[in-house]
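Why should sequence recovery work at all? Because a backbone constrains its sequence more than one might expect. Tight turns favour small or flexible residues, buried strands favour hydrophobic ones, and helices have their own preferences. The token representation captures these environments compactly. In the example below, the structure is given first.
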């Protein structure tokens, strides 16, 4: 795996835009690998927030330092009750990579 396993200073980088109807989620202070990220993410197809252990998580289409996990999606820990929504607009930017 390239890049560090955890990084408190990693931030989301916008790298793509919507081109068809999709599910997005706007996060505020979500957690992934010790970092805190805020922004818009593309929700993995057919996914909704679920409880894993005692945390509320959602799977999003995103990479960590340009590394794609084996299960294909990054799991964000949601802290503020965010919910995904259907986006029918074209050209909405979303985060595709988390890095420094």
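From this structural description, the recovered sequence reads:
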């Amino acid at each position: 795996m390239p890049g560090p396993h955890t990084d408190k200073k990693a931030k989301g980088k916008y790298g793509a835009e919507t081109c068809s109807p999709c599910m997005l989620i706007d996060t505020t202070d979500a957690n992934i690998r010790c970092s805190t990220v805020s922004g818009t993410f593309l929700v993995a197809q057919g996914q909704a927030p679920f409880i894993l252990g005692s945390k509320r998580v959602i799977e999003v289409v995103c990479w960590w330092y340009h590394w794609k996990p084996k299960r294909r999606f990054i799991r964000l820990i949601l802290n503020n009750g965010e919910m995904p929504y259907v986006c029918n607009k074209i050209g909405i930017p979303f985060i595709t990579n988390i890095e420094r």
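A few observations help interpret the result. The two ends are 16 Å apart (CA to CA).
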